[in-house]
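Backbone geometry:
***
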Amino acid sequence: NHHVLIPRPETEELIRLILDNHNQATLKVLDIGTGSGIIPVSLKISRPNWQITGCDISVEALEVAKTNANHHLVDVSFLTLDILNQEIPMDWDIIVSNPPYIPIKEISDMQKRVTNFEPHLALFVENNDPLLFYRTILEKASIIPNKPGTVYFEIHEQYGEQLESLAKELHFQCTLFRDINNKWRMAKCVRLIQP
């Protein structure tokens, strides 16, 4: 509904990237900004023994995510979290996020079916700080104890190099991946253990 983004092919590719890189029997996964719950629900269907949690600042979005999890008969936990103002709870093997990453200045270039019907809270960031959510998530992930961990992102095609530099500053090794349209749309950031 209008409280969540419509899942797109890039998100499907992000899910596939995670599944292709992790075949462990049990893992703990947190999806930040879960929206409709497409990422945790899809992961749980393919990896039923993983412990998966989706979080979002929007209570309305979480209701949609819970409905989708129930519809698909999967056991996914959900919690309310304002990632900009709260710490990441617990420890996780994998963190994944498709955060807001479109600068507000790009609204006029977007299709009306997106800007008129999908939540701006899940789409847009201030023009002067397009990496706000990536930086916040990586900073908070970097202090989770005892977990080298991996963070996966869906990204804006124009900010891949900036994300690589940011990840390096925060002691993550970042690898970018192209989508089916040959655009840099996904990133895998592996936390480096400090001496």
Notes: The beta strands are 28-32, 51-56, 77-80, 94-97, 102-103, 124-125, 150-154, 172-178, 184-191. The radius of gyration is 16 Å. The first strand starts at residue 28 and ends at 32. The CA atoms of residues 100 and 120 lie 9 Å apart.
